[in-house]
Design a protein that fits this description.
Helix content is 15%, strand content 42%. It has twelve helices and 49 strands. It starts with a helix and ends in an 8-residue tail after the last strand.
Length: 887
């Protein structure tokens, strides 16, 4: 009966699928000519392993095809194998049939989990118009201004590309219309783009020309007009070349932007090419000293926004003639004023030799006869001539496309050079002044070049090479996403490059992230471009566990203090760090999970944590269980650098946390106490280091709220505390260290919060002391230490397995002060001692041990006796490496 039912079912399925395939074959016949027949509507999968329906459903959603050729269906076979591999099912063989016994497309899978029991399932196939997820990241960078270059950046998800011979097409769009010829990843904006919106269409075509993916990337904003300098046209000198006559100017002012009116254009009158002192107005009255000389004038247009244009020059056709006229007193005063017309240029002019030996070889001395033969032009050097009609002194400076130097800096350089004799030395000095200005503005790779020119109007033309970022290439990246590195560098292709800004971006990234970046610079493909190669040094994905054991405070919590920590790096691909810790100290055990990650390239970091603990009271024997307490807490925190300079930084951080605590009687289970705590903390840590001295100050302001259900009580308190540390390098052998802490609050309720009050010392274990009578709600302490490293002693040779051994001596809790209820404790030295620290043993262990002697008064004699066996304390840490150094 069962076999008959199966046979009837197969016949019915054959009839239904036969009807479907008839329609499908007809469609394929119509579309086969273009190489893309319609895909099948279902695919029959045969398998022989335990495949969960939920896993099948997930994969079913990815069964999408645009075409129905065997190569298209075969891509689904590979995708299925990849999905099963993630479920620990390895596909060791597959068979594709475009038409099985039932007229269907079928796939037979052979895996390492086959159990010999045949199974099958029908997967519906959805029509795939485009898979736009192929472009996992795309962005247009650059300045939206005429004559600037926009750069398209994108990342392709190779796992979604179905045809290895696919081709990527780029087409730039202006107001959603095709820009002819703009098919590269870079596009230089033109005048036609002004006022429009620019986008780029990114298309992937397979080898048949079918569109597999398409994405239009837009950059918000309209294209701005390039800074267009004003112009002077039709410049003429109006008047007769006769002593006593008044000359005036006639010209047309023009600016591409009609709202930029003329303001403070610079006018210079010249006598045979030399600047006339005081001749800077729109008119000039000829004086006797002008007789026999040819007068000329030049004007540099300037608009209301301070933009200057190209200088225009006009000369009189005839030399000035003398006539029998009576000179007024003001004209005679003008004669006296022009006797010393030359202006010094000490700030830029070199004292002796203006050029180096190589440049001097290019200097060509020209005689008067040579000038006559060359049309009265003076050859200063190859490619640089001074026209006979030009002034012999500088009258101005023209910089080509200046986007980096402030206008007031350029004006200052120009003001110093005007009136200086034109020579190779003075030209070199101007170039050096411009390059120095680039360095001061932190654009060290930009520079000024001297192009070939004929100086015809006394104005020196310099070409500016304003170096931009060509390509940013990310290397050695493993789990970190490429988009994360791009976004957190804060740099874009096409931006002007500043070494200081690049260095700051790298330092800021490295200061707030566990992964570290280094960079290399190389010439770009185009002139004036520099490529940046960014190397990513990521930590291991899993740092397996670090263990620690110590005997701190063992009289209270049993000597078996130990903990284990496991770190997971880059789980999210965003330089995130997840820390899982478990600790056991006999009387209590706890665990915690901490996630931290950067949020922006400006240094903002986020962290979230959860912690839980269980504590049991002990009396002598740790196995004797008394009251049992549990605690759970979580917190969220943000930090951001508000000042980040080479030697110092200031951060602003805030955190919020909640905790839940209870105390129960272990035998009856009765709830003895229950409380909830909330805490808001604002911090502003400051750090300074100059290589010899390091200072760190971290003040904190806390608002704490506790609510106790049993017994009912609610308390609000505030406190201000902080940590201070100072380290001073004394010499190659010794370093002095100070550390301290302070606390201030006006609430005595703090005494009921052991984790919030301040310990200023106590008996015996001064470095691992638990709060007691020596604690208070107001106070401070300072501890001092001298430390050396035997690796810095030339006479001592350390073994390879322990390259650093650091002995130290210390005095703890000096200058201590504590207020506890009505009692005050002040100016006690809690203890002194000596110890040794070994940071690394076989690259696995670290060890620290010290001997201490308490210095407290007789008030703690009883506690001293109880702690006599703790005068020597130690801690041992071990980190298990995931792989050997050779690997």
């Amino acid at each position: 009966m069962k076999q008959a039912f199966v046979t009837i079912s197969r016949i019915l399925m054959c009839v239904l699928c036969g009807g479907f395939m008839g329609a499908s074959v007809y469609a394929q016949t119509n579309n086969a000519a273009d190489g893309c027949p319609e895909p099948p509507s279902v695919i029959h999968l045969h398998y022989q392993f335990d495949w969960q329906p939920l896993d099948q459903k997930r994969l079913m959603g990815e069964f999408k095809l645009k075409c129905g050729l065997p190569s298209d269906v075969d891509w689904l076979v590979g995708m299925t194998a990849a999905a099963l591999n993630k479920q620990n099912v390895q596909v060791i063989g597959s068979q594709l049939s475009m038409k099985d016994d039932y007229g269907q497309v079928s796939i037979r899978l052979q895996t390492d989990k086959d159990d010999g029991q045949p199974r099958s399932v029908l997967f519906p196939v959805k029509y795939l118009e485009k898979d736009n997820k192929i472009f996992s990241y795309s962005e247009v960078t650059g300045v939206l201004r005429e004559e600037q270059t926009l750069v398209l950046r994108y990342v392709v998800d190779d796992g979604r590309v179905r045809d290895p011979n696919s081709e990527i097409m780029v087409q730039w769009l202006r107001n959603d219309k095709i820009v002819p010829g703009a098919t590269k990843s870079r596009y230089k904006l033109t005048a036609a783009d002004v006022g429009t919106q620019i986008a780029v269409r990114l298309t992937m075509l397979d080898s048949r020309g079918e569109v597999q993916a398409e994405n239009v990337v837009r950059k918000d904003g309209l294209i701005a007009m390039v800074v267009s300098p004003p112009e002077i046209r039709n410049l003429q000198i109006v008047g007769d070349a006769v002593v006593g006559k008044l000359l005036s100017l006639s010209y047309d002012y023009s600016d591409r932007n009609p709202t930029d009116a003329e303001e403070n254009s610079k006018i210079i009158w010249l006598r045979d090419g030399y600047v006339i002192k005081g001749g800077s107005g729109p008119s000039y009255q000829i004086v006797p000293q002008d007789v026999g000389k040819r007068l000329s004038v030049q004007i540099t247009p300037r608009n209301v926004r301070g933009e200057t244009g190209k200088t225009s020059l006009a000369s009189m056709q005839r030399a000035v003639e003398d006539e029998l006229i009576t000179l007024r007193p003001d004209i005679l005063a003008g004669v006296e004023a022009t006797e010393n017309a030359e202006q010094p240029f000490e700030a830029l002019a070199p004292e002796l030799t203006p050029l180096d030996d190589t440049a001097q070889d290019d200097i060509q001395l020209v005689s008067d006869d040579d000038r006559a033969r060359e049309g009265a032009s003076i050859n200063l050097t190859r490619g640089l001539q001074l026209s006979d009609l030009s002034p012999r002194q500088f009258t101005g400076l023209d910089l080509d496309k200046n986007d980096l130097l402030p206008q007031h800096v350029v004006d200052d350089i120009e003001a110093k050079m005007i009136g200086q004799e034109i020579s190779l030395g003075s030209i070199k000095a101007v170039i050096e002044a411009v390059n120095e200005a680039f360095r001061e503005e932190e654009f060290e790779l930009s520079r000024a070049l001297l192009p070939e020119q004929i100086i015809a109007d006394g104005r020196l033309k310099l070409q500016l090479v304003q170096t931009t970022i060509g390509q940013i290439k990310i290397e050695d990246r493993d789990r970190m996403t490429e988009s994360f590195v791009y976004n957190h560098l804060g740099l874009n292709e096409g931006d002007y490059i500043s070494l200081a800004q690049l260095e700051r971006s790298i330092r800021l990234f490295n200061a707030g992230n566990k992964s570290k970046l280094t960079t290399e610079l190389a010439p770009g493909e185009n002139f004036g471009e520099t490529d940046i190669f960014v190397q990513v040094n990521e930590p291991d994905a899993i740092e397996l566990p670090s263990f620690s054991v110590d005997n701190y405070a063992n009289e209270v919590s049993d000597w078996r203090n130990n903990s284990a920590t496991v770190l997971f790096n880059n789980l999210l691909g965003k330089d995130d760090e997840t820390t899982v810790t478990y600790s056991d100290s006999g009387g209590s055990n706890s665990y915690s999970v901490l996630l931290s990650m950067p949020l922006s390239y400006k240094g903002t970091n986020f962290s979230a944590s959860y912690a839980g603990s269980e504590t049991k009271t002990v009396s002598g024997n740790p196995d004797t269980v008394g009251y049992r307490g549990t605690s759970n807490s979580f917190s969220l925190a943000l930090s951001h650098p508000i000042i980040f300079e080479d030697q110092y930084s200031v951060y602003l951080s805030g955190s919020y946390g909640q905790s839940f605590n209870d105390l129960t009687q272990p035998i009856s289970g009765d709830l003895l106490s229950e409380s909830r705590g909330r805490k808001l903390t604002l911090s502003m840590p400051f750090s300074y280091s100059n290589g010899l001295t390091t200072v760190s100050v971290a003040p904190n302001w806390h608002i704490i709220n506790t609510v106790t259900a049993i017994p009912p009580l609610e308390v609000w308190v505030q406190k201000f505390d902080g940590d201070v540390s100072v380290s001073q390098y004394l010499n190659e052998r010794w370093t002095a260290n100070l550390r301290g802490k302070f606390l201030y609050t006006r609430s005595r309720h703090m005494l009921n919060m052991p984790g919030e009050i301040l310990s200023v010392g106590g008996p015996s274990s001064v470095r691992a002391y638990q709060p007691s009578e020596s604690s208070g709600y107001q106070g401070y302490f300072v501890s001092g230490e001298f430390r050396t490293d035997l690796a810095n002693w030339e006479t001592i040779e350390l073994p390879d397995y322990a390259p650093n051994i650091q002995p130290y001596i210390f005095v703890d809790h000096m200058l201590a002060h504590s207020q506890y209820k009505k009692s005050t404790r002040a100016d006690y030295w809690s203890g002194y001692g000596a110890g040794v620290s070994i940071p690394s043993i076989f690259d696995v262990f670290s060890f620290d041990a010290y001997w201490s002697e308490p210095l407290d008064g007789a008030v703690h004699e009883a506690e001293k006796e109880a702690y006599d066996d703790q005068l020597i304390q130690f801690s041992l840490n071990a980190r298990i490496p995931l792989q050997s150094e050779d690997e």
